[in-house]
Amino acid sequence: MTDKYALFLGCTIPTKDFGYEASLRKVCGKIGIEIADMEGYICCGYPSETPVAHDTWLAMSAYNIALAEDMGLDMMVPCNGCYGALKRANKILKEDAKEREHINEILKDTGRHVKGEIEIKHLIEVLHSKKDEIVKLIKKPLKIAAAPHLGCHIIRPSEIMQLENPDILDEMIELTGAESVDYTSKDKCCGNVLRGLDEKISLEISKEKLQELKDAGADCMITICPACHIQYDLGQMEIKTKYKEEYGIPVLHYPQLLGLAMGLGADELGIPFLKVKADEMLAKL
Question: Domain for residue 271, yes or no?
Fold first, then answer.
C-alpha cells in the first residue's frame, strides 16, 4: 500500500541541508511513501511563535495547513521546529472555532481558507508506521554504535506534541542493525536556539554531549532535525577552531543511516555533504 503525504521542507533543509532532503526522498521512494511537494509554501512561522506575534505565527502556519488541505493530504514534516509550530497551530485551528475564523479573515486576501481537516506528522513518525515494511528492505545490517538525538520540539510541550513513543528514534536505529547508544545527556537541547544570542554557551552545550558520545565509543550521531544537525555537524568545526578540540563524530540524518542499511550508496544519500566526514564509519560497514 502506498502512503502519500504533502512534504513540508521548511526553510533550512532546501537552503543548508541538502543531504537530508536527498536521503529522505530516496528512502521514502524505496518504502512506498509517496511525496507530493507543496508548491508555494511559506515559512512555518516558528520564529514568530511568541505571545507578541501570535497572529503572525498562526496565520503563517495556517496558510501552509490550508495548502495541504487543498491537496487533500496529511502533512509530513522533517524539521522539529517546523513540526512543533505546525502541530501546535493545527491543534488550535481544529479546536478553537473563533480563532480559526479570525485567522481565516487574515488569510482571506491570499485565497487560502483553513478548515482543520488534516494531521501533521513528523518524518520519523511516518517511517515508524512503516517499520514492518522497512525490516524487509534491510540488505546490509549496520554493525555500528549510533547515538540518537531526538531534539526538543518533537516532544516539548508534551501536552501538545503527544509523542506516543519517546524511544521512537532508538527503535528506528536498531531496525537498521545498529546499536542505539544510551547516554546521560540524550534528551538535552542541542543548543542551536542560543546561536544568535550567546555562541559560547551554545557551543558548550554541544561540547558536553559530543564528549559524552566520544567517551561512549559512538561511531556516529543520528538526528531528525536540520537545526540539531547543523549544531553538531558544523558545530564540531566551530569547536575545533575556537577550542582546539576535535571529536570526529559524523552526524547523520536518520534517513541516511536507514538508506545505508537498505544498500543505498553514500553519494546518493548526500553523505558527502557532511562537514564531519564519515569515512571511518563507512569503512566499518
Answer: yes
